[in-house]
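Record Sugar ABC transporter permease, 330 aa.
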Amino acid sequence: MSVKGGKTGPEAATAESPLRKGPTDAVLRASIWKRIHSHRNLYFLFIPVFAYFVLFKYWPILLAWVVAFKDLQLGSGVFRSEWIGWQNFKDIFYSPDIPNVIRNTVEISLLRLAVGFLPPIILAILFHDMATRRLKKWLQTFVYIPHFFSWVIVYGVVFGFFSVGFGFVNNVLSGLGMERHEFLLDSAWFRPILIGSALWKEIGWSTIIYLAALATVDAQLYEAAVIDGAGPLKRMRHITIPSILSVVTFVLCLSLGSLLSAGGEQILLFYNDAVFQTADVIDTWVYREGLARLQFSLATAVGLFQSVIGLGLVIGSNFVAKRLSGRGIW
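=>
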């Protein structure tokens, strides 16, 4: 079949058919606005959520960056206070207390991580492998409850155990003919009591994320392993741990990001003058120097410093985790 110009077959179809073009920017914009208009009721419902995050999450972050570089005066407000640049950060690092404060913070945070990281994983695996569902629910409830106690209640429990006058531990020591000991006033015992009480409070709640990960593991893998003769330890090594390794990496990276946050609320309740040199951390220093003395800019500068270091630690730990295991947060 001949066509005009002497071309036939596919060549003629190609010559006469126009080039296909994608939608223009105007068409795309019109399509987006059309979809927004069709779902306008959902967007109206989203407005309060958006306003909440802007007003109570992102706006305070912006104010914190501004206040950290100003000499905040309550009468002048944030934006009319004097801009002093890096002076707040200089005051922080020129303080004679800061080396001891940072050392205590890092040491206590590393102790929390070393002592408190593996027990929730082990407990979650034990819960996952538990055959009796009713017993499993009771035990989970029992270990979850301490998470909902305030630190004031936790300190009351600790005081009831370790008080020199009527504490359970000292009563046992006295009954055995041993001398009572001031555990709560002893620097050597402060950190073990601090870390132990924090572990007791949070170990159950920390298992939830691992139990959620274990719930996604295919049960047929365990059944096949049992048929092949794999015992509980081999099943845990070759199925359970690899299945939750990405979650473990995620939690570890986020935990490293809070290395400069040693649990100030708990320490404020637990520490005293006798253990001050061992217990003073960044959060307690901020409370004492920044809030008690109304140096709000100084306290904000410390918070900004913690945030920047935490972000760097999260990014660094994620990079290392991806290089070593191929898994990371993103």
